[in-house]
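for the record, two folds in this file. i put them one after another cuz i was lazy. first one right below, seq on top, structure tokens after. the second one comes after a little note so u can tell where it starts
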Amino acid sequence: MTTTTTDTDTGTSRSFWTGRSGLIVPALLVALGAFLVYGTVTMQVPPTATSPGPQVFPAIVAGGCFVVALLITIQLMVKPDVIDRGVDADGVPHTGTVSNWRTLSITVGSVALFIALLDPLGWVLAGALLFWGVSIGLGGRRYVFDAAVALLVSSTVQIVFSAGLGLTLPGGVLAQIF
């Protein structure tokens, strides 16, 4: 059953889903979290694995996915994200979707570039490109600073995985140089 309400500002009727299309993000996060839980539970851990082991990080990420999905869902249920598109000269409200295709294309392009360059460049450089591209997609305008932070973050992840978890990430070009 779909309920409709009347918007007192424009006199138009709205369904329950108006302003709640963002609920697709928590749905995707729950699907990703469930995939990670399945992968973590079915992971074959060698008996020589050291503590904390290879199952800890995916479990933390899965838990984070579920927490963020819950928080986004609560936010959208309490306060729907209704965008005022204005009205035309005759007083008829503008309708249609509001999408930020620039952000989406830069972010998806950054992920695709990361996937393509992970083996040849290695984690540190490919991860830095990924983080830098996403920061630009989300509106970052301090390109040099963002690139430096992205390199710092990807290097930190490399160190945490190598030293903390005993796992190796692809070394790529830097492994051949050093």
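(here's the note) second protein begins now
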Amino acid sequence: MTDTSTTSRNASTEVAKNDTGAPGSTTIAEVVVQKIAGLATREIPGVHDLGGGAARAFGALRERIPGATASAGQGVSVEVGEKQAAVDLQIVVDYGAAIADVARSIRRTVITAVERMTGLEVVEVNISVSDLHLPDSDDAPAETDRVE
């Protein structure tokens, strides 16, 4: 027969103390940090979109489906530990934007947003510029629209 009083006592002493000193713990899912980082990145002037070519193509298809919404975490991957988080971003920059300045702004904004909202320490924000958006690329006529 097992001594249940020892078991329950050990379980209660293993409960972590939170910031207020009360027993309990808070777990933050990676998808939460991913969305925070993605939304914060999209706020930065000079960021046209997030994700590589395949992710953006899939996002464009998803937007055509009635009722579907764009993924806030597209182009963002994160690793979340108990007290720290690391963020990797894949972005498309608008032509003419100073990429180094855009990257600095992204890092500052993402770190502030994630740390403020989650309490996690952001140890790194890695940024990969996968493409450059040209101003007329959205307005270019299709091959069949040309008049000769």
